[in-house]
Amino acid sequence: MAFSKIERRRKIKMRVRSKISGTAERPRMTVYRSNKQISVQLIDDIAGKTLAASSSLAKEIADQNGNKSEKAAMVGKNIAEVAAKAGITSVVFDRNGYLYHGRVKQLADAAREAGLKF
């Protein structure tokens, strides 16, 4: 029986999440991608807290012109800057069941270029 797109993503997400976890020193960087927006959070799974977050809905990014891929790159750069201010240099990347291409890849590449290590 074929899985729906949502069920397929849920299964991939659970498979990935069983292997990775974030700590205060090296938080989990998880990506959420909707049809129009993209957001990212740095999560300490041990304490159950979000340490930093960024989204394409943030004022400094939403005011910029560009397509969805360009906005994803801006979000990646922004999260790297926010993480640097919080003293975070290294993260564990969680693509959240999405394929690693397009907007997810743009976000990850921009975060790496801005100084985040993963």
UniProtKB/TrEMBL annotation:
Keyword rRNA-binding annotated: yes
Cellular component GO terms held in the UniProt record: ribosome
Assembly behavior: Part of the 50S ribosomal subunit; part of the 5S rRNA/L5/L18/L25 subcomplex. Contacts the 5S and 23S rRNAs.
Organism of this sequence: Carboxylicivirga linearis
Keyword set, alphabetical order: Ribonucleoprotein, Ribosomal protein, RNA-binding, rRNA-binding
Cross-referenced HAMAP family: Ribosomal_uL18_B
Taxonomic superkingdom: Bacteria
Pfam families registered for this protein in UniProt: Ribosomal_L18p
CDD domains in the record: Ribosomal_L18_L5e
Function: This is one of the proteins that bind and probably mediate the attachment of the 5S RNA into the large ribosomal subunit, where it forms part of the central protuberance.
The protein's name: Large ribosomal subunit protein uL18
Gene3D superfamilies: 3.30.420.100
InterPro entries recorded: Ribosomal_L18, Ribosomal_uL18_bac-type, Ribosomal_uL18_bac/plant/anim
Stated family: Belongs to the universal ribosomal protein uL18 family.
Keyword RNA-binding: yes
